[in-house]
Description:
Number of helices of chain A: 4
Distance between the termini of chain A: 52 Å
Shape of chain B: elongated
Radius of gyration of chain A: 23 Å
Order of helices and strands of chain B: HHHHHHHEEHHHH
Largest sheet of chain A: 3 strands, antiparallel
Low-confidence stretches of chain B: none
Structural class of chain B: mainly alpha
Helix content of chain B: 55-70%
Structural class of chain A: alpha+beta
Helix content of chain A: over 70%
Oligomer: heterodimer
Shape of chain A: elongated
Mean pLDDT of chain B: 83
Low-confidence stretches of chain A: none
Strand content of chain A: 5-15%
Amino acid sequence: xxIVCGIQYNGVEKMAIEVVMMAEIEEIVNGLILELRRGTLxxxxxxxxxxxxxxxxxxxxxxxxxxxxDAGTLYPLLRRLEKQGLLESSWExxxxxxxxxxxxxxxxxxxxxxxxxxxRKLVFSIENLMN
Amino acid sequence: MxxxxxxxxxxxKRLPLKQREDIEKELRSLIDDMLASRCAGREPxxxxxxxxxxxxxxPAILAAKYRDDKCYLIGPEYFYTYLTxxxxxxxxxxxxxxxxxxxxxxxxxxEHVFAGIVELIAAVVSxxxxxxxxxxxxxxxxxxxxxxxxQNVAKRKWSVSELPKIPKKEELIKPSDPITGIVFSVVxxxxxxxxYRYIGAYFSDGxxxxxxxxxSEQFQNFIPxxxxxxxxxxxxxxxxxxxxxxxxxxxxxxxxINIVLFxxxxxxxxxxNVWNGNFVSELxxxxxxxxxxxxxxDTVFAGLRKGFVALLAFTYGIxxxxxxxxxxxxxx
Lengths: 131, 332
């Protein structure tokens, strides 16, 4: 009896440890994915702004295309890119509501072209590494 | 919608004034858009607002994302030096104020001892706060001035030749030296601000100990200058603490500060209003001057005053030369 109990107890404990480890791995992976995505956000944003768009429409558009970004991250990012001179913006009335429309500046266009090139090289190299 | 206003307020109050209006407008239009997308035509309910605000998350975090400038008074670069200087100044200032007041109470016992003690505690607390404030201001200024240097350094190319030499033991400035300097500055400050009345000749007339002060009552008009002396001295010692070793730049800085210190000292101590003009006659009246003295005490007193200024000049001069020589010697 005791021996069986011991084995069972052991099994339960092992499972508990495995669950904890899984959770830990999950946490690490999530953190790293976040970090990976962070680097691609600017590229994603620039790629969509050859036409003027307001922030929330950009959130929705990116989300439809599989890039999730919350508004609380995107709005400050847009302002920062404008401050850097990559974007321009103007307030416009649409559906009787004022909205700020952002679009690529000339500098932004050039920067985006370069970044896009860089991204393709990077994808190629990383693919090469992983295969 | 009151909740929306409160949320926007919670974000914008954490932002620089000049950005607030713009970001408020932007957030309001964002929240409107999020509500419209969530409700698809119907009027938004309170639950919708709550859900949208929850999605936007903690206002403090959102505000932090909007702020890209640095938001600290004293950064990691100086923080530990700041702590050291601050502790030294505050502790010695509190202790010095307490001792200064205690001497005052002992010499001129107040009518109500309790009131005297309350006054002492108040003086200690206010002294400690003054020290805290001045040190913090000095370091905040240093942080802002020096941070520009760091940014410029980041822009230019770094080369291996810039690596600093590992300093020899005699090149290093032991932290205890500047700290001692700060303690002395604090003692100086306390003595000259609180206890200048008690610097002088002491005698007993049977009824108790009396003092003939060397300085006049007008000395208190010069206290701002004394505080300036104190601030520059602490600045000098802090620079030594931060540098940690003798360099030419430090030598130049020490010399410059000593020149400022000397000019201020001259302004204070060569002014005749600072000194008690009746010192000698009061001394005479107290019967402390031997009758058979054949030199004029006025001359002696004037000589002592000149000597005091000369001593200051000598101290500042030696300190500056010492810092310059060491700086040149160890910079090679």
